[in-house]
Amino acid sequence: MRLSWGLLLLTAALALGGTAAARCPAPCVCDNLRAHVLCLNGNLTAVPGTIPQLTKKLDLRGNSFTVIPAGAFLTTPYLTHLDLQRCKESLDGLSSLQQLVLEGNRIEEIQPGAFGRLGSLTVLNLRANALVYLPDMVFQGLQALRWLRLTHNALHVLGSEAFAALPALRRLSLDHNELQALPGEALARLDGATRLDMGHNPITYVAEEALAMASLKHLFLDHAALQEVAPDAFAHSPQLRTLDLRENQLRGLPPLAGAGGLLRVSLAGNPLLCSCLLRPFHDWLVRARVQAEGTCAAPPDLRGRPLDSLRPPEMRCSPPQPPPSPTTPSEPPRAGGSGQCPQGCTCSPDFRHGSCENRALREIPRGFPGDTRLLDLRRNTFRTVPPGAFPGLKELVSLHLQSCGIGALRPGALRGLESLVYLYLTDNRLSTLAATAFEGAPRLAYLDLDRNDFARLPAGAFQLLPDLISLHLQHNAIGELAEGDLAGARGLRWLYLAGNAIGHIAPTALAPAKMLEKLHLEGNRLAEVPTAALRGLPALSELKLSRNPIKHLGDGAFLPVASSLQHLYLDNMGLERISPGAFAGLGPKIRSLYLESNKMSNIPDLSNFTGLEILNLRDVPFHCNCQLLPLRRWINKLNLRVGATCGSPAEALGLKVKLSTAFQTCPGWGRGEAGGASPDKTKAVSKTSKKKRSGKSPARA
């Protein structure tokens, strides 16, 4: 659930006096009656210094704060709700704050003590940031916190004391991250938590006694990569009532020892094998009176049958196979768990993690346990990754090599990493990659090459990566996308190229990536929409062209992707003119359209955009004359904040398009359009008019 302004208005508020009203900052709107201040989408770079002292709710969404200095809120001691969504961020003076929304920023790191003075906070929303790691005691001081929302980040590693000192926490949301295992040691600190959201993480295995949360009642592990769950995985979570394991890769489950209070298990979307191997689990369900959701995928005669409809005699097995002959070598025991670990590194057998982060190493160490799944080697000085650098790590899933000064990834460097899914090479010195650079890692799906020295895409390097889903090449020096650059990337879905110097995209450059869903090209040097290059991308749903010097949108600019496009970013481009047919083909599928901070004075008819959830038209100098009447009528019908204001004529400068009276002399102006506001706005205008007629000066609104 998004913590919108409506949710931030749930509690009662104090009235502000006349003195406070006089101090309302110029770019803000102050509601004196309810002690609310809104400073939305104002390009503010600093927190206004004259916010009324008695303010209880402050909404600063959509500004450009890169730093909030110590003492910024010392003059607002009664503040209980602060919203900083979609800003770019010492929260001193906020001891009364109850809800803090930092969603959709670019927060990459949080230092312990950052929230130390927010003792009244009950909800902390850090959704959709760029967090990778949570250090110990990072939330210290949040004694009243009840819901911590960390969903949609990039979390890989959590300190064992990351959630210490959160005695009131009841709900923790860690879904949509990149955790390869349940962080059991960190979670064990949450004695009072009753709900844990862990879905959409690449967790393949839930180990023995993996979760020890005394009060946990609801656990969500849906849409992960689970292949196996240990029988006593939840033995130390005795209050567990619901277990959501939907959409995983489970063929079956063992009887869950110690989970005596369990009432419901959801296994929908798993490839369940309803043979005799599943019979013990089925018998346990019946004995424990646990409701199970799910259907059989095999054997063929039981395919599609609900679990709760099966009878034990139906769950048969094939005749036993003969034992292997003496000449057939048996499978060797899996390495790991023996205590082996390179000197100077730390290895966690419970989580199958190894770490040598920031140890001033000059060579990649060897000798990690063979069952290691996450290896963190960040912030060392390797310079080169030689062939065969990671021997014996066939189960490695995630490899971190950020900030290691790497200038060369030698052919065969990843040899033997047959389970590798995530490779992070951010902040290195790579400028090229050999065609065989990724040989030996055929399952690689997430490749992060941000902030390197690439002047062009490493053509040919993706031929050996049929499962590549996400490719990050942001903040390099790439000047163009040429034909063949993405050869072999047939499974690519997300391509991130922001912050390069791309001025040209060849018409066939993107053609190999026929499954592409997201294309981020913001902050490049494109002078026009790469319409020809968008052909052959039938699944593209998100296109970002923000901060490119595109001055004109021609007819049919997005026609090749009109049937799939849902999110379109055209903001901050200096856009001067949009042709009438620029948005041809687009319509009900569009969910969000960003056109803010441009220079055009009008836009074409958008009435076909009936599915819009976000429309941003702020900081566009609209010419409020009769030619703009269709736009004014349309946005008046939308239940959205669009931010459209008049840039001309002079008498309308700065007025909201919806409230401007410049249209009242236009032919066809209807009686019902007067005021141009929604019911709430109409009431506000009506009250203001009454005050003017009575000679009283209205409060700022």
Features:
701 residues; mainly beta; Leucine-rich repeat, LRR (right-handed beta-alpha superhelix); 13-stranded mixed sheet; 5 helices; 40 strands; 6% helix; 16% strand; globular; disordered N terminus
| Topology, number of strands | 40
What ranges have pLDDT less than 50 throughout 5 or more consecutive residues? 1-22, 320-338, 674-701
- What is the mean pLDDT? 83
What is the CATH architecture descriptor of the domain at 1-169? Answer: Alpha-Beta Horseshoe
State the CATH class of the domain at 1-169: Alpha Beta
Helix count from the secondary structure assignment: 5
Folded structure, characterized:
The protein is mostly beta strands and 701 residues long. It has a domain at 1-169: Alpha-Beta Horseshoe (Leucine-rich repeat, LRR (right-handed beta-alpha superhelix)), CATH 3.80.10. The chain has 5 helices and 40 strands. The strands form 9 sheets. The protein has a 13-stranded mixed sheet, with no helix packed on it. A 13-stranded mixed sheet has the order 20-21-22-24-26-27-28-30-32-33-35-37-38, with no helix packed on it. Residues 1-22, 320-338 and 674-701 have low confidence and may be disordered.
